[in-house]
Amino acid sequence: MKKLFLLIFIISYSFAITPYSLENLKEVNLKVLNKRETISKELEKRIENKIKEEFQKLEIKTESKNFSNLLVKIKIDKIKDINFVRTSLIITEDVIPLRDKNLEAIAITYKVEDSFEAEELEKDIYESIIDYLLEEFIEQYKEENDK
User: Fold this and answer.
1) Which residues of 75-99 are buried (b: 16+ CB within 10 A; e: fewer)?
2) CA separation (Å) from 114 to 47, 62, 78, 130, 136?
3) CB-based contacts of 8: which residues, under 8 Å, 6+ apart?
């Protein structure tokens, strides 16, 4: 029984670890990607405002002169009457690779995703982004920045 408990604990803990770091993140440019208007403008604004509100609590500026973007990506695939949704929170930044100090590149420095079948499309998308992806971001940010 103890071995089973330990195995479950190790497996669940291993999924909580991310290869990305949020240490010393101070500012980003927030962008909700809604080019094809997959979601309503009202939902886009609600998501944007909630993220700004949470980032303000964390003292992260949401407008930056640097190339550091927090992208909220939403992709909806409709098969028959079923909506399959993929949501992501992604940070892209300018980086200097170790292999060449004169080279500047763009890299994904943080990414978390969710995939699900949506019954109530806009409600489920909001919950995925705010209640799941953003909460995961906030938790990691607080752990890595002693907040």
Assistant:
1) eeeeeeeebebebbbbbbbeeeeee
2) 16, 23, 16, 11, 11
3) none
pLDDT one digit per residue (tens) for the chain, 147 residues: 555 554 455 555 445 556 888 998 999 999 999 877 889 999 999 999 999 999 999 999 998 777 789 999 999 998 888 999 999 999 999 888 888 889 888 889 999 999 999 999 999 999 999 999 999 999 999 999 986
136, two tokens: 């995961």
Angle, alpha carbons 14-19-20 (nearest 5°): 130
CA angle 74, 54, 42 (to 5 degrees): 45
Amino acid at 7: L
Instruction: Give the domain ranges of the chain.
Output: 25-145
CB 115 within 8 A of CB 137: no
Strand 29-33 to strand 105-118: parallel, antiparallel, or no bridges (unpaired)?
Answer: unpaired
C-alpha closest to that of 95 among 110, 87, 107? 107
Tell if the pTM clears 0.90, that is, is over it.
no
